[in-house]
Amino acid sequence: MKNVDYIIVGDGYAALFLAHQLKINDKSFVLFSEGRKSASQVSAGIINPVVLKKFTTFWKAQEQIDFLKETLHQIESYTGENYLIENPIHRIFHDENEQKLWLKKSENNELTHFLDKNFDHLEVVKNDFNTGKVNQSARLNVNGFFTGLFNFFENESQLIKEKFDYSKINTSQNTYEDFNFKHIIFCEGIVVKNNPYFSDLPIDPNKGHHIKVKLSVPISPNITIKKKHFLFPVNNGLFFYGGTYDREQLHHHIDDSAVEQLIKGLSEFYPYDFEIKDTNFGFRPTVKDRRPILGRHSEHKNLYVFNGLGARGILNGCYFSKSLYDFIEENIPLHKEVSLDRFTTVK
Fold first, then answer.
1. Maximum Cα–Cα distance across the chain
2. Average pLDDT over the chain, rounded to whole?
3. For 55-59, which contacts have Cβ atoms below 8 Å and span 24 or more sequence positions?
4. Cβ–Cβ contacts within 10 Å for residue 70, how many?
5. N or C: which terminus of the chain has fewer CB atoms within 10 Å of its end residue's CB?
6. CA count, 13 A, side-chain hemisphere, 87
7. 214-236 burial: b if 16+ Cβ within 10 Å, else e
8. H helix count then E strand count, the chain
């Protein structure tokens, strides 16, 4: 039998940011990943402190941005790679009223560091009313992040590439197959619905599509453009455009209506021909109150859950991985806004 402090189950941002916390705190762990493409792995990787529909911010936005940059610097120290792409978001204004609202909101103490007061006009794309730049916005190199960290943990013999079998947990002896564990943390996204210990978690899947396109007239490679969705460069001369939100069409194949929505959205501000080279989708794990879910099982006190990261998977996953670690190791209470205890006890 091998003794480990933690077993992590999951493939996305929650699992990997949590694994990072365990690494820097010298905790032993193994990460079970069955190799599926989680919503995190097909995400845009947008790092954005502003809600760009209403020009508002959200709970702990500045703290989350600062902590993410610190964390990515730590990760770079052992992977040798910088996964932060500091290309800012430029939000295309629909009309003069949006310009005025942006400027008004930029005077707000919570937004003044995020909403740039100087507007920019972009080449190639339609932006008759210019664009507003979101300061401190950026992107994560999503493919590099997951490839780099999975490779690192595999080389450290901490990655187990197989599906986790709940039936093999012995909660009385704290064993799983050949492992003696102190804690298990489930970071499974929507797959948590199959977990007998946390199947009652109020997680709602939100399906998001994106397309990768070849543009006939290229745009600046150093920015992310936002109107209805996000447009930015990826590898091989292609551009990512997405993603959609759908709580109704939850089947596991591409929705033609979502693709049409993306084609229409891109055509509204990109006036030239483009060719779709790839289409993909994922299911974001969301919660009605838009806050993650962290906590301990009501009966099995060494089983934990970390879920519900929603559309802000990078910021939520990074910031609250530290909160969950401190809760387990230091007995520091979780914020009531994200604690599992805010719901009826999960059995």
1. 67
2. 95
3. 55/101, 55/102, 55/105, 55/111, 55/115, 56/105, 56/111, 57/110, 57/111, 57/114, 58/312, 59/291, 59/337
4. 11
5. N
6. 19
7. ebeeebeeebbbbbbbbbbbbee
8. 6, 18
**How far separated are the first and last CA of the chain, in Å rounded?**
29
The pLDDT value given to residue 344: 65
89, 90, 126 from 116: Cα distances, Å:
11, 10, 20
Residue 302 has pLDDT above 60, yes or no: yes
Say which residue the tokens 């929603």 belong to: 310
Separation of alpha carbons 277 and 214, rounded Å:
7
Distance between CA 338 and CA 304 in Å, rounded? Answer: 13
- Rounded Cα distance between 305 and 307, Å, is 6
Q: What is the mean pLDDT of residues 156-164?
A: 97
Q: Please, which residues have CB within 8 angstroms of residue 237's CB and are 6 or more apart in sequence?
A: 214, 218
Domains of the chain in start order, with CATH, are 2-44+143-203+289-342 (3.50.50.60), 204-286 (3.30.9.10)
The answer to whether the beta carbons of residues 211 and 34 sit under 8 Å apart is no
Helices (H), the chain: 13-24, 61-79, 96-105, 142-155, 256-269, 313-330
How, if at all, do strands 169-170 and 230-233 pair? unpaired
pLDDT tens sequence across 254-284 = 999 999 999 999 999 999 999 999 999 999 9
pLDDT in tens, 1-15: 999 999 999 999 999
Distance CA 167, CA 90 (A): 49
Could you check whether the bond before residue 243 is cis, i.e. omega within 30 degrees of 0?
yes
The residue whose two tokens read 């995190």 is 40
Q: Is the pLDDT of residue 347 over 50?
A: no
Beta 274-286 vs 293-296: how paired, if at all? unpaired
Percentage of residues in the chain having pLDDT higher than 70: 99
